[in-house]
Input
Amino acid sequence: MIKNTKKAQKNNILSLEDVSISYGKFEAVKNIFCNFKKGDITSLIGPSGCGKSTVLRSLNRMNDLIPNCSLKGTVLFDGTNIYDKRVDPVEVRRRIGMVFQQPNPFPKSIYENIAFGARINGFVGDIDDLVELSLKKAALWDECKDKLNDSGYSLSGGQQQRLCIARTIAIEPEIILMDEPCSALDPISTLKIEETMHELKKNYTIIIVTHNMQQALRVSDMTAFFNAIEYEDGDGGKVGYLAEFNSTKKIFSSPKEKTTQEYISGKFG
Amino acid sequence: MEEKLALFKNRKRFGIEKNIDIIFKNTALVLSSFVAIILLGIVLVVFFQSFESFSRYGLKFLVTSEWNPVKDEYGAFTAIYGTLLTSFLSLLITIPLGVGTAIFITEDFVPKLFREIIGSFVELLAAIPSVVLGLWAIFVMEPFFRAFFVFLHNFFGWFPLFSTEPTGRNSLLAILILVVMLLPIVTSIARDSLNQVPKKLRNASYGIGASRWKTIFSVILPAALSGIMAGVLLALGRAMGETMAVTMIIGNSNAFSWSLLSPGYTIASMLANQFGEADGSQVSSLFYAAFVLMILSLVVNIFAQWLVKKFSLKY
Amino acid sequence: MNSLFYQKNSSRNIGDKVFTSLSLICVVIAILPLIFLVTYILIKGGAQITPELFTLEPNPPGDDLDAGGINPALIGTLIITTIASIIAIPVGVGGGIYLAEYSKGGPFSRFIRFGVNVLAGVPSIIAGVFIYSLVVSTKILFGSMYSGLAGGMALSILMLPTVIKTTDEGLKLVPNELRYASLGVGASMYTTILKITLPSAFRSIATGVVLGIARAAGETAPLIFTALFSYYYITGFGDLFYEMGSLAVLIYNFALEPYDAQNKLAWAASFILVLSILSVNIFSRILAAFTEKTKRV
Output
């Protein structure tokens, strides 16, 4: 038994321990406990306003950029609480990369989009090789190998998003966070990105926020269902919490919680 | 039912109403073309008034600095040099200060309220009339900098720009008051351009582990560059055409000198100073100078507009 | 593997600190003179304010004991600015209406919008030179040369682009649904504009216009050889056709006098000018912020 827990702990790459996040006075999510295993794809699902994106952004301290946003509790990564006062958020983001909801290439060439991140992270190898490798991993190489000097904005939306994934891979993070990466894309591009994620799983841990339950079912090993309840004082504000966390199979076939069942069957959301 | 319909007997628009509609539209059309008429009028009037001087001196006017109403010899080199020198040097000082300030108030170094106070304060200062700045320059700035100018001359006198004994009113003071005047323009336009850079670019950069200033220099400033450049060009136009504050502090002398510490002239200050009392071919020569100033500011202005259009945000 | 901890001595963190300090220094260098400027004007100018200042004529320079007041300049500024507004507001609002309501983005409207921006960039002294040769030197206004009327015309050239721009932009902010609603019940275009679109854009246009007027009130360069200056009371309508004083030109003339008494008048005039311009600006800002808040609710 003891052995098992130890093994489990060893496998945990990122752990949330009693995390609560607030915007100013308003609590967005409360008392989250959650372990993300190395090499897994974990989906965060739940109705709008349940705080799943907030939780995701807290995992590499992107929330620092939002005024008044504060976090209580511990986020353990690699044995260190990333909210420790001594931690440099820039270092955290170098090891936990992020892909955003809207494709956001830099207004530079495709090549420079990838080289930029590598250079600031002190990459010393051959940048040409890195660009090629990253684009291949993101399944974009064949489509853009002849126009690496074109602007990132010359690509289609789905290609742009894969460029952003390639850019994130290029800095060799240990974890990739994806915040609804397909919500702005058409179904075909979405499928391509999902294929890419399956490829990436071999080397990276992925945590993805998605509104699309089919996507969660298709891509992820683990699923965390977040829900929101009204404040106890009942003034209409809501606070998010982690309702259920289990393997994707179990969440979708035999959820323990009634709300999970209702959500995945489309009764609210 | 019958009664109700009767109320609408005259459903058709009266002829007179149709006419009013047409008259209204055409009046608006004529009023809007006033802009073009005035602009054309200004160019033509200044051009024809300068014709006499232009045909007499040709382009030599631009490169000689003799300005002698007694001998009837005119050349505007001193004023043109002064115009370009004061405007470019003042911009050179203003750009880093203004853009630095704009960066400071678009980043989150201090609370939002504080940043907004700084921002609106700087913008308010753009409303202070330049004649008041001139007054302030004469009575406050000039005595304040006097010792500093002596120091500049003593230690850097070997450098042509500081090679003369400082006089009470001089080109350097004009440059400094221009800085005070341009700062609000550059700062507020740079601030707007920086604010217009989409948040997602900032996220992208932070998301792959760039530090704050790496993000500013490599992502945010390049994206805002065209807007900032356009603002800088507008400021340059303002600096070249600025009259009152400069006229009051530059010393107004036509004797050419490389030194910033001696009195100088700009085209605008020459106009303000001499136009009222000029007669004969001096008037035409002043118009010639005015024409040069107009062309300079038109070019800068049109270039700024072109820049805004060409590079208006593409993402 | 690198530690996650903040490393004080890494070149990146030192660089960030250096640049942050540099930008703070920029703010300080930029802001300090500006604060000093405003307080100095308000204190030095405010100290000269007396009741007589508003009622007396200025005495000609040379009499160092008593400079008199600035009544003619104060009234002159009001008159000249009013004349400029009477010319520029109808022309500008009318032109703005055409650009925003009638033009369909064709070459004509693009040319006019371009012209508005160019005119806004024409040096103010050129506007003075232009009116001088058009009005003053030709004595076209019933034989008078320098006059308050000519000054007002020169100022109106500077106000015009501001008025057109604010009207154009204010009207463009009015949602199209509102226009369709009015046209849809069979209203004429001009009724729609006068009764529906213009009133709903009124506040933003008015704010822009008032700011334009405030800016024009402080302009000096267009006046120094159109309205010139006058030491005497404005007594009647006929004075429009003669030289007219203004606060701005008074500051210019008296700042350059070697006499302390005249300099003091210049400070007093600056105080009045700056105070009124700043209050108009601050008031319109507060109004704009207030409007935005109420709209959001």
